[in-house]
Amino acid sequence: MAILSDLKRLYFAATAFVVFVIAFVSAQAFLDDAVRLVSFSIVPFEDRREIISVRPAPQLPPPPTATSPLGVTPMPPPATVEAIPVKPRPGEEDWELRSAKEQVASTLSALLVALPIWWFHRRRFSQLSREKADYWLYKVYSYLVMIVGLIGVVVRGGSTISQVVRAALGVLELSRTADQIRFANDVAGAILGTLLAAGVWYVHWRTVEVLPDTLETR
Prior knowledge:
The protein has five helices and two strands. By secondary structure, it is mainly α.
């Protein structure tokens, strides 16, 4: 019976951790997509995009051409073109906003599926640990979750600092509205992701701190 009880706890611990990782990644993606959706909903499509239209440049009359000794007239030089920025037409489909909505729906669906599964397995795992008064496996689970949280802090925090430093050094192109929106989305999403990862680490660190250091026996 003891072996079966340990196997049951191991199942709930492993399932809770794997589903937590899925939920954590989905939550990070959802934050990025939600930030994009909010910014695209606030800023009109006409102010976000610049469509490049190409039209022929004015041509000067060609100079008189001389006939070659072989009687062949040289070909005129090819016409040159110039690109000019043109605003999208009013009523044109906002494909960026539509794409952002689809991404939010996708990541939110994955998050809504993963969270209840994770909550059920973690709750059951916690109950079994309390019933047996044996918390070493629960501590292992909590430490693994803390590692995932720290990885998220490093990755997302590093992305935030990188974007700010690149903008300060003038590496990023921020002259167009579309570039400014992209920069704001990246920074806001990275900050929210960092706060989420830090919160995950802190909550589980507090949990480990209050658990008994030694195994208790009844």
